[in-house]
Amino acid sequence: MSVARRLVAIFYADVAGYSRLTGADEEGTHRRVMAVLDDVSAAIRNSGGTVLRYAGDAILAVFPSVVLAVDTSTAIQSELAAGQAGAAEDERVAIRIGINLGDVIEDRGEVYGEGVNLAARLESAAAPGGICLSGAAHDQVDGRSVATFVDGGEQVFKNIARPVRVWHWSPAPSPATAKQAAADSADGPVSELPSIAVLPFANMSSDPEQEFFADGITEDILTELSRFKELFVISRNSVMGYKGKAINVPQVARELGVRYILEGSVRRAANRVRVTVQLIEAESDRHIWAERYDRQLDDIFDLQDELTRTIVAVLPGRLEVATAERVERKRPENLAAYDCVLAAKLLHHRSKRECNAEALALIEKAIALDPRYAHAHAWRACILGQQWGWGWCDDRTETEGRIVDALETARALDDNDSDVHRILAAVALIYRDLDKAVFHEDRALVLNPNDDLIVVQRGEILTWLGKAQEGITWIRRAMTLNPFHPVRFWGHLGRAHFVARQYGEALEAYRNTVLGDVTGLGIVAGCHAMLDEKDAAAPRVAEVLKREPAFSAAAHVGGLCYAREEDRIHHRDALVAAGLPA
Q1: pLDDT tens across 462-499, in order?
Q2: How far apart are CA 215 and CA 198, in angstroms?
Q3: Cα–Cα nearest to 461, from 429, 506, 485
Q4: How far apart (Å, rounded) are the C-alpha atoms in residues 575 and 569?
Q5: Under CATH, what is the fold of the domain 389-415+426-578?
Q6: Residue 441, by phi and psi: left (phi above 0), alpha (psi -120 to 50) or beta?
Q7: Phi-psi domain of 11 (left: phi exceeds 0; alpha: psi -120 through 50; beta: other)
Q8: pTM attached to this predicted model
Q9: Count of Cβ atoms closer than 10 Å to residue 345 Cβ
Q10: 132 and 96 in contact (C-beta within 8 Å)?
Q11: How many CB atoms within 10 Å of residue 254?
């Protein structure tokens, strides 16, 4: 029997945060969701589309053209946002839409195939209230629709053989909607992700051709920032309306419904380019960060890439610090899921037992507020991993099970969150599973190559693999990407130099950090010993034995992640040479 096939635009929509809404008001949520799905279905049919099936709070439909699917979808999202502008936060129903162009199998009024699966994956990658297109769909709609999409780069989706380029659309909020969002953020218990608008960079040169360079910088920053799932980034079509206009930052922020504004300028003189950037907290009109970059103009595209990487690596950290200050001013009962995760991260980084316990309590609250928050489940695993690694748990086997459960949940909820894979790699190192660490580190780097935490972890893993010189290059790259990097980066660099047998450089790196654990103290003592500086090694040796009276070099090194036996032996011999028990 022959199989009927045809090329169609596949539409897949789902309600964002359905479990959270249901948990707050089951019957009311059901009524509101059903009303929204009825409206969406009617809009699809009225536009020439065909609704094929419902799956709980999801809709699968097909359209005869991608342009028709996109225009219908943008109308649905815009009307839904406008219709709920005055509704309370816990009563708003937002949907995500994925659109793909695919060759499907038709059978008994249904469609099947990888194209349908990809549409569902695209839906999960869309922002609430937004639309996510595959590259194939975008090729058909580009220039044929009033909608403008931002390039989200290539993404790897579960059960999809090849990486897929994605494109994102989100509606520009009306001033009334923005005002309501700002009020909700300031007064209510619910907090959004840090929201930022990247305004078009101004061309300060007399050369009108530099307009292309300024626009390119703006678009590249928007694209790369969209990889950070802990940020809400306003789309290109929303910000380009401010191009060439005098900017009142608080007013623009209110109109766009964001908390932070990034603005910048480009000036070219002869063969040099100067780019300035400013990050502003809109509510207080306060500069959080500003920088100036002076570069030689050899290859304009290489320069554009370099500046984009540098700016994007710094921004999320500056936003997190600024947002943390806001979180610290809130009462605990008013913390929302994102706030809880951010506060938990800060406590986790202090590496103290009591802080770890507080961090875990905050993460559990975040998960209770939003059970489908993948980032929270990933950080639950990380915090439990810290308990396991430092011996702060009563039952190590039980804690291991909780770590595995949290990681499996995080990955099932969002397999395309770069930070989820970064944490999966970090926890794999705790278990000394280098193969798994490399797999997840590779995925994290593909998903977000500009995250300094992912870049530095690449250097850390390379060092464990016996490729310390490569590791040093990656760690230094992370430090260059983010001049405000955590102090622990120096510890990673020091260990890499030690493994590379570069003892002077290792000691120089460790001088910039605080030696908070036995491993770092032992490496510093070992470096002094290998440089024949036994007197300098002695205080470090004494500190190690004070913390671990039963310390054994062989046992300690046996618990580390070295892939090569020669690196393990080298580490043990350095500790023994410093005067530590074999």
Answers
A1: 999 999 999 999 999 888 877 778 888 999 999 999 99
A2: 11
A3: 429
A4: 10
A5: 1.25.40
A6: alpha
A7: beta
A8: 0.57
A9: 19
A10: yes
A11: 18
Beta-strand runs (E) in 108-173: 110-112, 131-134, 150-155, 164-169
Are 95 and 14 in contact, with CB atoms under 8 Å apart?
A: yes
548 Cβ partners below 8 Å, 6+ apart? 518
Cα 398 to chain centroid distance, Å, stands at 29
- Domain 4-169 CATH superfamily: Nucleotide cyclase, GGDEF domain (3.30.70.1230)
d(CA 424, CA 440): 6
Query: Which one-letter amino acid corresponds to residue 485?
Result: H
CATH 3.40.50.10610 domain span(s) along the chain:
175-328
- Give the H or E element holding residue 530: helix 518-530
Give span(s): CATH 3.30.70.1230, the chain: 4-169
In tens, the pLDDT along 376-403 reads: 898 999 899 888 888 898 898 899 889 8
Q: Examine the pLDDT at 179 and tell me if it is beyond 70.
A: no
Rounded to the nearest 5°, which phi and psi values hold at 63? Answer: -125, 155
Chain segment 81-92, per-residue pLDDT in tens: 877 766 766 677
Indicate the range of 297-301, 434-438, 500-504 predicted with least confidence.
Answer: 297-301
Residues near 80 by Cβ (< 8 Å), separated by ≥ 6?
Answer: 36, 39, 93, 94, 95, 129
Tell me, letter by letter, the H, E, C secondary structure of 215-234. HHHHHHHHHHHCCCCCCEEC
How large is the angle between the packed helices 374-390 and 418-430, nearest 10 degrees? Answer: 20
Record: fold of 175-328: Rossmann fold (3.40.50)
- Sequence-ordered alpha helix ranges (H) in 47-129: 66-83, 114-125
- Location of each CATH 1.25.40.10 domain in the chain: 389-415+426-578
